[in-house]
Specification:
This protein is mainly alpha-helical and 197 residues long. The protein is 50% helix and 7% strand. Strands 2-1-3 form a 3-stranded antiparallel sheet, with helices on one face. The radius of gyration is 18 Å and the shape is globular. The two termini are 29 Å apart.
Length: 197
């Protein structure tokens, strides 16, 4: 039986679009998941090549502005290119000179303190800005155990607001922002709007 399960997992690897984890539930059954939840023990059985566009999304991503800069940042920080593009679209609409009323700057709308913390020397330089934003996104993904929804919420509202609630905070802007980013992320991956992340 175990051999059959391993064969099925191996076959699933060929079409995997995300990390897949396995654990054993209280009844001794196997549980497969694409989300690593805090407080549970999982073993990763399939790893997503997050820094490269797959065949379905390659054209959508390579046709985007700053595609080479985003690809390099995705590889450097091991984050999905599609997610970086979705954030940039929501944050600045690909305008490298964008400035918010709150003081966020550039393609990834980095706050000056966050930019300094992420090692960004020229916040208006697209390459430096995207590298800093990718580094910060990786920090959020790590902090929230690769829960993309919470990481995106934290990118917008700050990690403390998400940690305090354990969920997307009830701020109107964040409640609009998170679904917009996730819709774009799924679109760039060639997934349906309601596909699991």
């Amino acid at each position: 039986m175990r051999a059959m399960i391993l064969v099925m997992l191996w076959l699933a690897a060929a079409s995997a679009q995300a990390d897949v984890y396995i654990s054993i539930d209280a009844k001794g059954g196997y549980v497969l998941s694409n989300v690593h939840r805090p407080g549970r023990h999982y073993d990763r059985v399939i790893s997503e090549p997050v820094a490269q566009a797959g065949p379905r999304d390659a054209q959508l991503i390579t046709g985007r502005p700053y595609a080479d800069l985003v690809a390099a940042a995705a590889r450097a920080h091991n984050v999905p290119q599609a997610l970086l593009h979705a954030l940039i679209k929501a944050e600045s609409g690909y305008n490298p000179k964008a400035r918010s009323r709150a003081g966020a700057v550039g393609l990834m709308q980095l706050m000056p303190d966050t930019a300094r913390e992420m090692g960004v020397e020229d916040i208006l330089d697209p390459e430096d800005n995207v590298q800093g934003g990718a580094r910060y996104l990786k920090r959020m993904l790590t902090l929230f155990d690769n829960d993309i929804t919470l990481a995106v919420a934290a990118y917008n509202a700050g990690p403390d607001a998400v940690l305090r609630r354990g969920a997307v905070p009830p701020f109107a802007e964040t409640r609009r922002y998170v679904p917009a980013v996730l819709r774009e992320y799924r679109k760039l991956q060639g997934l349906a709007d309601d596909s699991p992340l």
